[in-house]
Amino acid sequence: MITKKQMQDLARKHGTPLFIVDHDEIRRNYAQFKKHLPRVQAYYAVKAEPMPEIVKTLYKAGASFDVASMPEFMIVHENIKGMQNKKRLDWIWDKIIYANPIKPIETLKELDQYRPLVTYDNLEEVKKIKKYAPHAGLCLRIRVPNTGAVVELSSKFGAAPGEAVDLILAAARMGLGVEGLSFHVGSQTTNFENFVQAINIAADIFKEANDRGYTRMNVLDIGGGFPAPYDSSVKPFEVLAKRINAELDRLFPKNIEILAEPGRFMIATAGTSVVRINGKTVRDGKTCYYVNDGVYHTYSGIIFDHQHCHLFPFRKGKKEEICGVFGPTCDALDVISMSENLPADLELGELLYSTNMGAYSHASSTWFNGFPPAKVVHINK
Ligand SMILES: Cc1ncc(COP(=O)(O)O)c(C=O)c1O
Questions:
Q1: 262 and 282 share a domain?
Q2: Which residues contact ligand 1 via a Cβ below 6 A?
Q3: How do residues 263-278 score in pLDDT, each as one tens digit?
């Protein structure tokens, strides 16, 4: 784990705002995922943080990848572009899933040469795939309960379980191969029942498909949603893994390949943000700090992901108080926190840091107000 001293040294060397990515931590998260879910092939959800260096580290560790756009696909492809053609296409089939259920026609046209596995959840998409990417394999995304997930995903994607087999048979009638099912229980899911219910719904659909004569499915993709340990309320990953393993072994024979698309779990703990105090005032009796990173930048997860980001000082002050911390832009929305426990005597130029910042943070950073995204430094690559 990165130390405070390392953060300070890096901030001194590179300036702030700084976004530090620890590749040892990425490798540890991947190893932990594999250890506790030995039957599950981990497809890193590139959207969580698409830096090529991160994709390379996971590629070297043996990970597979979930991509959601052509640029994400090409970031992964960069690692295998030198492979001999057949080997490369086999790798793509084995290790990439294009898991965005809605794909533009141009994307399908470009994807077809790579013959990847793609997800879909409606009939219009089947027609499009048939016309523009007939060599792709299909995986039907189903809608499952997202109860209690921090980021709900079921309102936008997923076929209703009751229409699933009709959608599988419709694709098959058009000459496409449906390899299996996928779902997403919602991001940062601390309600482990969601996984249990979703696996049971998927098992029912496998059975119905078999009963109606479709016996080709051999893939179950249990999606993302594995929670990052943001605070002590998140139960250990081993507890979730135990429940998932038990349901998978009970409901799916060993010949069914199990995939997952962890994003946040792989990368959240690997990212650390360091910011500098640029301004200070007292508003309504509360000490407020203005720092050089905010919700339009590395702290974007506060807006997009309901994330609570905490800031920590590098030194103990005289007295801690509830303080406000604001981002650098002129928008009043740019508030990192209205209630951080911080020393009230921090001075302009001093630094603060946030841990567990790796997922959906720098990835959705903008240039709003002319402020560029935080500088990135990779350690332990
Ligand atoms: C299709 C799909 N797969 C995987 C993920 C990654 O989810 P998480 O970061 O919660 O693991 C997402 C996140 O939005 C997604 O939409």
A1: no
A2: 45, 48, 66, 99, 153, 184, 187, 223-226, 261-265
A3: 999 999 999 999 999 9
